[in-house]
Design brief:
By secondary structure, the chain is of the alpha+beta class. The chain is built from 17 helices and 25 strands. Residues 265-441 form the CRAL-TRIO domain.
């Protein structure tokens, strides 16, 4: 594999003639071709090796030219390629070592030139007059034009086994001017806006940028955006190019470039999403604060849907890049990433709701693929005991380079030396963390269940559709026609987990087991929606006898309208398990002749025709269950001070958690 190098444009803030005085263009001691054009003030050096040419091919091109915006400055560019044809099977390794050594000497080359320029100035040589053509008679001028002389070009071309020195006035074919193009990068620009890069990193940036200019004739990303992808792939050009091209396709497909102009978060999101921008850290990075412990992630997902949350997160990342550019101009140094401060006060088992965590993982995946190296530092404060469970679930999906930027503080360890004061100025630390700065980040709270989406209120059709997998299902429960789901268990000890919300009416939930496979029977089909399903499904045949054809594994659980239920069951036998929701009748079946007054009042308030619910279920192997966020046995979710009353119903082999 040929190793290549392309330098940025290096600028010497001295005239071309003064640089040429110490460049030694009139004496060449290795095989190369030099073409100096005194009239156009350019020098092109092309060199290649002859020794061991059958094993190693080295090509190098250097050019000096006048700066396009200041004729008293000189620009220098350099490119090289190294191809080892044969080296006992270690060609690729030797190429990399040789190129690394080559680039290590490149920056020292500029330092040497600068040193000798200062030496000339110390000796009183501060100006060398520009070349002017010698006066000639009209007859000589006509003769020169007739033979095609161009007195402004002075070449020096080497022979195969030596060098020659050409005197001024000799003629040769004119060379193209090597003045920098407007779209080229110079070293000063890189250092000012992109940061300190090694010569090889500079080369990778320039080569990838050139490739994008050639292949993508339209708009190409900004230099800092290209550099992020290179850093994410350790400056492997092929891997960075593949990642960047996939991201560019994604941005074009979903019009992400216009999200800051087109996206306006819903009022519900502005009220309950506990995140916002807050000044900057000590390094000048924009600071984003996320009060995750105070956020009702489950309520936001159910009320807005995953797509709205994703779009909001994308807008935050786009805004972050914009703020980095502004801070780069404001502080006079490159700012290419931001800092995120996450407050976990209030984090508990409610945040480990499995569909919510899955949605979080998908958002992380999208951000990791399309916004690499944008996070400079992540400060996590007030991490509770439940945090290791969440970290265990989320960390495998986070890039190793990103994980190394995490700083985690439990309790009050964030206060004092070694805490937030090391990274944030005291006048920036928010008030809820003991600082003096008022923070405008919303405090969040529980999203009212009345705002949860139903079949009649699907997500807006213009949302970004990135995920085809649907987490939720919806169902109607009819009078005399329960909704049932069958789960086939192949091994004895598996775990069935469920989570559902009662949107309308009261239902009774049961779990049954049968060795026979039930047959599908649809009672009614409703219009399709973004939440999938919505059909009423009855599986247990009316001819089946309880205790003979099937058996009850769960005691009936009455679920009232507006309740959220989470539960799990450890299976004892293989076979078919049926989750059943049926309409609850408030009137007693036996044991009393008159109904209770409370039951009558409830029956008058609830529709007698149809109940509605949204549900999610999953089957886990028993070995994967312990520590899972679906394991809610003996757990009372308090959701910090934001929680409403919570009750739980536990069985010997199962548990259900009810939130009102």
């Amino acid at each position: 594999m040929v190793q290549k190098y392309q330098s940025p444009v290096r600028v010497y803030k001295y005239p071309f003639e003064l640089v040429m005085a110490i460049a030694g263009v009139e004496y060449v001691f290795f095989i190369q071709k030099n073409t100096v054009n005194w009239k156009e003030r350019t020098l092109l050096i092309e060199a290649h090796n002859e020794t061991f040419a059958n094993r190693v091919v080295v090509l190098e091109t250097c050019s000096y030219s006048v700066h396009p915006e200041n004729e008293e400055w000189t620009c220098f560019e350099q490119s090289a390629s190294l191809d080892i044809k044969s080296f006992f099977g270690f060609e690729n390794t030797v190429e990399k070592i040789a190129m690394k050594q080559y680039t290590a000497n490149i920056k020292r080359g500029k330092e040497v030139i600068e040193h000798y320029l200062k030496e000339l100035i110390s000796q009183g040589i501060t100006f060398i007059p520009r070349w002017t053509p010698p006066p000639v008679s009209r007859q000589k001028e006509k003769r020169a034009l007739a033979v095609g002389d161009n007195p402004g070009i002075v070449p020096a071309e080497s022979c195969m086994h030596g060098t020659t020195k050409e005197q001024p006035g000799s003629s040769c074919p004119a060379a193209e001017t090597a003045s920098p193009d407007a779209d080229k990068l110079d070293a000063d620009y890189i250092e000012r806006y992109l940061g300190q890069l090694t010569p090889m990193q500079e080369s990778c940036l320039i080569r990838l940028r050139q490739w994008l200019q050639e292949m993508h004739k339209g708009k190409i990303p900004k230099d800092e955006h290209i550099l992020r992808f290179l850093r994410a792939r350790d400056f492997n050009i092929d891997k960075a190019r593949e990642m960047l091209c996939q991201s560019l396709t994604w941005r074009k497909q979903y019009q992400v470039d216009y999200i800051l102009q087109t996206w306006r978060p819903p009022s519900l999101l502005e009220e309950y999403y506990t995140g916002g921008w807050h000044y900057q850290d000590k390094d000048g990075r924009p600071l984003y604060i996320l009060r995750l412990g105070q956020m009702d992630t489950k309520g936001l997902v159910k009320a807005l849907g995953e797509e709205s949350l994703l779009r909001h997160v994308l807008s935050i990342n786009e805004e972050g890049q914009k703020r980095c550019e502004e801070n780069t101009n404001l502080f006079g140094r490159p700012i290419t990433s931001w800092t995120c401060l996450v407050d976990l006060e209030g984090l508990n088992m409610r945040h480990l709701w499995r569909p919510g965590v899955k949605a979080l993982l998908r958002i992380i995946e999208v951000v990791e693929d399309n916004y690499p190296e944008t996070l400079g530092r992540l400060l996590i404060v007030r991490a509770p005991r439940v945090f290791p469970v969440l970290w265990t679930l989320v960390s495998p999906f986070i890039n190793e380079n990103t994980r190394q930027k995490f700083l985690i503080y439990s309790g009050n360890n964030y206060q004092g030396p070694g805490g937030l004061v090391d990274y944030l100025d005291k006048d920036v630390i928010p008030d809820f963390l003991g600082g003096e700065c008022m923070c405008n980040v919303p405090e969040g709270g529980l999203v009212p269940k009345s705002l949860y989406q139903t079949d009649e209120e699907p997500e807006n059709s213009d949302h970004i559709r990135l995920w085809t997998e649907t987490i939720y299902h919806s169902a109607n429960v009819l009078k005399g026609a329960p909704h049932e789901i069958v789960v086939e268990i192949l091994e004895g000890e598996s775990v069935i987990t469920w989570d559902f919300d009662i949107l309308k009416g009261d239902v009774v939930f049961c779990l049954f087991h049968s060795k026979r496979a039930p047959e599908t029977s649809r009672k009614e089909a409703t219009s399709s929606s973004a939440l999938t399903a919505g059909d009423n499904m009855q599986l247990i045949d009316k001819s089946w006898v309880l205790g003979v054809d099937y058996s009850r594994m769960e005691s009936p659980l009455v679920c009232r309208e507006g309740e959220s239920i989470q539960g799990s069951h450890v299976t004892r036998w293989p076979g078919f398990y049926v989750l059943q929701w049926k309409m609850h009748s408030s009137l007693p079946c036996s044991g009393t002749s008159l109904p209770r007054v409370d039951d009558v009042l409830v029956s008058l308030q609830v529709s007698s025709h149809k109940c509605k619910l949204m549900y999610y279920f999953e089957v886990l192997a028993s070995k994967d269950f312990r520590g899972s966020m679906s394991s809610l046995e003996s757990c009372n979710s308090g959701f910090s001070q934001l929680s409403a009353a919570t009750t739980s119903s536990n069985q010997s082999q199962s548990s259900s958690l009810i939130s009102r």
